[in-house]
Every structure is written in C-alpha cells, then in structure tokens.
User: Fold this.
Amino acid sequence: MASNGSSRPRGTCFSEDEVKILDKALSLAWDRFLKTGMMNAQNMAEAQQILGQRIMSSAADGQLDPWLLARDALFHLWQLKFTGEPLVRVPPRKRRPRIRS
Assistant:
C-alpha cells in the first residue's frame, strides 16, 4: 500500500475533510463492485464492511487519494473473497474474418 509518508497511530480521528475523502473512496469502490455483477444478498454486508475497513486502514496509513483508496479496497476485497474470478467481466473478443489474398 503506497502511502504519502504521514502515518498516524491507530485510533486517530479523521478531520471533516478526510471523512469526505473516505466517503468518496467508499462510494467509488462500492459503485465499481456493483458493476462487476458479483454482489448478491449473501455478500453485500460483508463486502461493505471489508471495503470500509480497508479504506479507513489505508487512510490511517497516510493514503488520502480517494481513487487509490477505492482501488486498493476493491482489490483487497477481490483477493479475500473472489480470488480466481476476474474482477471485471470482459465480454469475449470478436474475431475479425481473415482476409485471404
């Protein structure tokens, strides 16, 4: 996990501006998770908890970029719960007809 170098002790409170960053990061991660099609009734609450905890942990370590926080949390969730499945479902590639000369 990349950090900006300003690690803080665990249990430290976040400022109002930092909470806004955490909220944005969670929204970004959750939106992306919903788009994967991997959410179901059984994993919804657990996924929210894992994403939120990872975002707060990474922010406490000094990372305050919402995009990087979201990405890290999503990959962390994927590693914990969905290893072996693609994070993003990619449609099969269409083959172009060969041109014969």
Confidence is low (pLDDT under 50) at residues 1-5.
